[in-house]
Amino acid sequence: MSVIDSALAQVKLLQPYTPGKPVEELERELGISNAIKLASNENPLGFSDTVKIAIKQASQKIELYPDANAYYLKQKLAKRLGIQSDQLTVGNGSNDVLDLIARTFLERGTEAIYSEFAFLVYALVVQASGATARIAKAMPLDHAQPYGHDLAAMLELINERTRVIFIANPNNPTGTWLSGTELKRFIDQVPTQVAIVIDEAYFEYVEENDYPSALHWLDDYPNLVVTRTFSKIYGLAGLRIGYAISSNPVCDLLNRVRQPFNANSLALAAAVSSMDDEDFLQRSRANNIRGLKQLGDYFTSKNIRYIPSVANFLTVNFGKRSDEIYQSLLRQGLIVRPLANYNMPEFLRITIGTEQQLQVLLEKLEPLL
Ligand SMILES: *Cc1c(COP(=O)(O)O)cnc(C)c1O
Fold this sequence. Notes:
CATH architecture of the largest domain: 3-Layer(aba) Sandwich
Number of strands: 13
Bound molecules: pyridoxal-5'-phosphate
CATH class of the largest domain: Alpha Beta
Strand order of the largest sheet: 2-8-7-6-5-3-4
Radius of gyration: 21 Å
Number of helices: 14
Strand content: 5-15%
C-alpha cells in the first residue's frame, strides 16, 4: 500500500487543467523577448494606471493580513450593482468561487449539470467534489449559437439528485451567449432547491441588446448565484480576484466554506480602485469591438468559419490543420489556445489583442492558410 492509494478516487481521476502557455516560457524556449500571447483572454491594454497607484500604496502594508471581510470592495460593489454587501462572496479569482459553490452543494451521490464545451473549471470542481457530472449536449455547429448551451437539453437532465447547474453567459471557449428571454424561462423551470450558477466573467464586454445580467433576477430566485471577475476587462488576472452575488442565505453558506484570507490585500485594493477608471474600461471595450471585427472580417474573407463571439476572443475552425497552425504560430512567437482538451481539436481560440498584435497574427497566419 502506498499513500497514493489513500487519495480520493475522484481526485485521482482529475484531468489537470491546461492553461495557456506563459509568455516567459515561450520566450525562454525561443530565446526571444517579444512574444505575443493571445491565449488566456487577458486584457491587451494591461490594467488601469489608477490601479498601479493603489497597489503601490497597499504594498506598504503587506505584513498585515488582508481584510477577511473585504469591507471596502463589498461596499463599492454593492453600491455599483444595487445589491446588499451581505450578498457578496469574494474569491481568489472567480474560479475560487466556483469551487466554493461545489464544496457547499456537492458530494458523492449528488449531481451537477453543465453543457458540453462549457468552461472546463465546472468539470474540475464537480469531479473534485465526488459528485456526478451530467453533461448536456450543446447546440449543433449550424445553430445561430454554434456549440452554445442548449437550455432544453440541460432541463432534461434535472432529477432529484441535481444540486447545481453551471451556465456561462457568455461561454468560454465558444463566445456564445443566451438572451434574457430564454435564460429567464429556463430559470423559471428549475426546481427551487437547485442552485443555478450564472458565470458572467465576460459581462462587461457584451454589447448585445438582449444580453441580460442575471443580477436583476436575484430577488425573485434565492437559488441563483451570479459570478463575476476582475481578471478579464479589468486586467487583474495575475492578482486573482472575483466574486459571487447571491441571496444572503446562500452567501452565508459560501462564506463558511471560504478560507478567511482567500483574497489578498493587493488584489482587494486593486479591485476597488479599478472600478474608478471608466475611461480604461471604455477603451478596453472599444478595442475589443474593433478587434472582433478585424478578425471576423479577415476570416470571412478567407472563407474560414468561426463561432460568432460576444466576448474578448474568437474561436476559429481551422479543421485538420489546427494543430499545425498552432505549432507554427508558436515557433514565430505567437501563442493562441488549442482546444483539444475541450473536445474541439479543430478549433483555436484567439484572444482579441491590440490592433497591432492582431496585425502581426494575421501576417503570420496568411502564408499558413
Ligand atoms: C476567465 C474565466 C473565469 C474567470 O476566472 P478567474 O478565476 O476569475 O480568473 C470564469 N469563468 C469563465 C467562463 C472564464 O472564461
